[in-house]
Amino acid sequence: MTGERRRYVQCPCGELMEGRTDDLLVDEVQHHLREQHPHLRYDRDQILSMSY
User: Fold this and answer.
1) Does 2 map to a domain?
2) pLDDT band at 17 (very low <50, low <70, confident <90, very high)
3) What domain count does the chain have?
4) Is 1 a member of any domain?
5) How far apart are CA 31 and CA 18, in angstroms?
6) pLDDT at residue 1 in the model
7) What is the gyration radius of the CA atoms in the chain, in angstroms?
8) Of the four listed, 29, 37, 49, 50, which is most buried by Cβ atoms within 10 Å?
9) 17 CB contacts (<8 Å, ≥6 apart)?
10) Residues of the chain with pLDDT > 70: what percent?
């Protein structure tokens, strides 16, 4: 067991994003937002507060 725990964010559009680390999850969510919802902006803390 490595101690890694995947984290997830479910976008209201239906996209489920995941990351092995907080940094990877934040990068994935920010990429999705740039591509699919360019009018939305969330910072790292906001993204992590929505993760599970």
Assistant:
1) no
2) very high
3) 1
4) no
5) 12
6) 46
7) 11
8) 29
9) 8, 9, 10, 11, 25, 28, 29, 32
10) 94
- Distance between terminal CA atoms of the chain? 20
Q: Residue 35's pLDDT is what?
A: 98
For the cut 70, the answer to whether the pLDDT of residue 20 exceeds it is yes
Q: Report d(CA 7, CA 25) in Å as an integer.
A: 7
The answer to whether position 44 is within a domain reads: yes
Q: Is 2 exposed, middle or buried (0-12, 13-18, 19+ CB in 10 A)?
A: exposed
Query: pTM higher than 0.70 for the full model?
Result: yes
Structural domain including 40 reads 7-50
Number of H helices, E strands in the chain: 2, 2
* Residue 17 belongs to some domain of the structure: yes
